Structures are given as C-alpha cells and as structure tokens.
Amino acid sequence: MNKNQILDILNAALKTGGDYSELYFEDTTSTTLMFENSKVSKTNINNICGCGIRILKDDKCVYGYSNNITYTNLLNLANSLKDCFEGSQTHFVEDVVEVKEKMKNKAKNPYDKVGLDEQVLLIKKASDVALAYDQRIKKVDVRYSFSNQKVTIYNSDGKIVKDKRVRGRCFFTTYAFEGSNMQIGTRGPGAQRGFEFFKDQISLNEVALDSAKSAITMLSATDCPSGEMCVVIENGFGGVIFHEACGHGLEASLVSKNLSVFSDKKGQKVASSIVNAFDDGTIDGGWGSSNYDDEGNKTQRTQLIKNGYLINYLVDNFNGRAMNELGNGACRRQSYKYVPTSRMSNTFIGNGTSTRDEIIKNTKYGLYAKVLGGGSVNPTTGDFNFAVREGYMIEDGKITTPVKGATLIGNGAKVLFNIDMIANNLRLEQGMCGASSGSIPADVGQPTIRVKSILVGGTKGKVKA
C-alpha cells in the first residue's frame, strides 16, 4: 500500500468529525514446541497478519480490524467505522513521516536463522538434567516458544512508527511423586532476545535443575500454619503481588474512570517511605519491553511511587484525555484484534538498603515465600490471594521447615504500607498479563522484601500469638 492510499484511509476515518485516526498493521509468526520427558510431544506454528483501525472523538473510541489488508477493504472498514460519529471533518492528514531512532532489543541470532534441531537438542539436554536429579522426578514438561512480531503504525498526527519484537521463553514444569504426594517445581525464563539468550546468556540446565530441586524439596513440606504473621517474599516473581494488586490499579484505563483505589491519589502517600516502584519499557532485552508502545509513543522508564508517594500513572493517549495527561509509552495490546489501552511492561519495586540475609536474620518468626504461584485479584479494590508454591518457616532468624498449602491474603494498598525492609537484590522474572487488550508479555520483579504483617491462609491451624 502506498502513502497516498494510507492518507486516504486515515482521512476517510475522520470525515465525521473524528479528531484522531490510526492504522495498526501487524505481522507475527510464533512457534511453540511442547516436550514431555525430553521428547517433542506437540508443535504449533502460527501466523497473525492484519490491521486495526481506531478513531477517537473527544471521549469516544471506535475500533475495527481485518485480516484482509487490501486498500479497498481497509478503506471500506474506515468508512464503516466513521459512521459511528456524526459531524463534518475538522482534521486533515496531509502527510505521514517515519519516526527513526536507535532501536534496542535486537536479536543477534534470530530464531528463524538457527536450525530447529539445535534448539530442540538444548531443551532435551536440560530436561534430562531435571529427570536425572532424583528418582522421584517422574515427569518434566517444557513449553518452548518464540515469536517474531513486526508492527507498523500510521496515525493522523503524521507519524509512521515501526517496531520489531523478537521474543523467546522456555517454561519447565517438573513433577515429583512420593506415594500419593505430588509436588511441582516451575521455572520459566524468557527475554526479548534471539536464540543467543538460551544458548549463551543463561544456563537452561541450571534452570531445569532448579525446578527439580523445588519439586523434591516440597515433597517433605509440612502443613503451613495460618494467621497474621510476618512474611518475607523472595525477589523476582514475588513482584507479581505488586503487579497484580497495585500495578493494574495504576493503569489509566481504571484511574480515568475512578475505578481504581489509586484514583485521584497522585501526590499522596500510598506506601511505606522505603518503597520506590517503576515501570520501565526501555530495558534492553526486557520481556515486556518495546521501542515504541502500540499507539506509536516512545516507551519510557516511569517512576510510579517515590519514597512512598504516588507520582505517576501508566497512561495511554485515549484514557489520558479524561485525566488531562499525555500518554507515557504505556499503551499495549496482544494483537491487531484488540483495542490498545494502558498496560504495564516491566514493573518492579526498586532496590532497598538491606541485604536478604539481614532481612531473614531480623525476622524472629514468619513465613518465607520463595516462589509464588497463581492467585486472584480484584483490580478495583486491590484485594488479592496468592498461593505460595514453595515456602518455608522462619524461626529465630533462620529459614527452617518447608511448608505447603500457604496462601497470602490481603489488599495491595495496605500491603504497601506494611513493607518494612527491602533488600538490594532486585531481580525480574517473566509472565503473561491478561486484561482488556489481551494477553501480553510482562516482567514482574522486586528485591527480597519483608511485609511486617499479612494474613496467611494455611492448613495446620492458627499460629500462636
């Protein structure tokens, strides 16, 4: 499609008074391989190619998409969408010019340039390591996936923005059995990198071994006591609590509608004074990073909380209208089939001044949540519960007995005030975040933190006061 045809479609979308129009072209190829005990059990190759058209007028948005990306079809789609508004054209697009800046997140060894046999062999060797760790390891499942996403955005602000995102992830699930007792260990590293990430930058053998050790350790776990207690949450995926219970409440899609517990809280204290929190879409190679967001804005490092005070939200251009704020590079979507909106990228609590060992040593009694599992969150209130997949008791400043059946129950806004120690060992881990604009890759993270009081659900009975 040539530039004049693009201009025709953008202007057709504005004929009934729209003040902004946008074309989002996407071409994504993804490959997934499933392994069971070192053998490939399933493969899937998928291609998504299409275009979404968005029109904004004041506080209203209309959106449509098609996988038929011919000029005639997209012009018809734009004309159909414009009929949702009434009025005459006041904005005209005379030209679109490509924005060119230095790009990050480049793949040195793109997956399509590496033989699949070499990739499969690396996964098989790692699976063998997990299986050989202990005879009680009976099954190792691996989901290995990589994708190549090409995005081109044209908008009525006169911009052409192009981005290329190459991502890969390898997720191990290890099963250990002892009689009727079954426990699992999981690890799932990923990055916006090529095959060099798995071959040279991390050790998949160590990742697989960690998942096996976790499963075996939990076979000897005893039931966790319940009640209010001090909880130390390990770095890395422990940050999922902040992501789910607090991060979503800082997205403009909720804030602009006064549906968040953090609405109208900018400038107010929302956390302990030692808490600093960030969302950073500019991390080179970050799982949730990109050079531009999905409405063509440059991604940013945004500090959300500073010394306990809320200083920024995650804002997309559309929801920012209701907040009188400009988008700050936080607009994302799963694919062209979804309307973009404010979303997190790589979200984390920043480093503190303690060490992990100091935190453990200064905790007389409590729960050490080493690995968190699934959970549920009410994004409007911040109320949550998260399972502890791998946990231990802390007694007299030492990590002691492994425990199972623990659940962390609380409210994100309240937990932020109860954080009283933060270590200096920040680490990010990878996950998939689901919301109104689909499922997207996102890093979560934190240093080791201590929450002085949180409700722990367990199966052993109440902890002694």
- Cα(first) to Cα(last) distance is 71 Å
Radius of gyration based on Cα positions: 24 Å
Shape descriptor reads: globular
- Beta-strand percentage range: 35-45%
The averaged pLDDT comes out at 96
Notes on the structure:
The chain has helices at 3-13, 71-82, 116-132, 196-201, 204-219, 240-247, 252-255, 317-323, 356-361, 412-418, and strands at 20-36, 39-57, 60-66, 97-98, 137-155, 159-178, 181-187, 190-191, 222-223, 227-233, 277-280, 301-306, 309-310, 331-332, 341-342, 346-349, 365-377, 383-395, 398-404, 407-411, 419-422, 427-435, 438-446, 449-457. It is an alpha+beta fold and 465 residues long. Strands 1, 2, 3, 4, 5, 6, 7 and 8 form an eight-stranded mixed β-sheet that branches. The protein has a six-stranded mixed β-sheet with strand order 13-12-11-16-23-22, with helices on one face. The chain has a five-stranded mixed beta barrel with strand order 10-17-18-20-24. β6 (159-178) and β7 form a beta hairpin.
Short description:
This protein is of the alpha+beta class. The chain has helices at residues 3-13, 71-82, 116-132, 196-201, 204-219, 240-247, 252-255, 317-323, 356-361, 412-418, and strands at residues 20-36, 39-57, 60-66, 97-98, 137-155, 159-178, 181-187, 190-191, 222-223, 227-233, 277-280, 301-306, 309-310, 331-332, 341-342, 346-349, 365-377, 383-395, 398-404, 407-411, 419-422, 427-435, 438-446, 449-457. The chain has ten helices and 24 strands.
Please describe the topology of this protein:
Elements: H1 3-13, E1 20-36, E2 39-57, E3 60-66, H2 71-82, E4 97-98, H3 116-132, E5 137-155, E6 159-178, E7 181-187, E8 190-191, H4 196-201, H5 204-219, E9 222-223, E10 227-233, H6 240-247, H7 252-255, E11 277-280, E12 301-306, E13 309-310, H8 317-323, E14 331-332, E15 341-342, E16 346-349, H9 356-361, E17 365-377, E18 383-395, E19 398-404, E20 407-411, H10 412-418, E21 419-422, E22 427-435, E23 438-446, E24 449-457
Parallel strand pairs: 4-6, 9-19, 10-17, 16-23
Antiparallel strand pairs: 1-2, 1-5, 2-3, 5-6, 6-7, 6-8, 10-24, 11-12, 11-16, 12-13, 14-15, 17-18, 18-19, 18-20, 20-24, 21-24, 22-23
Helix pairs in contact: 1-2, 3-5
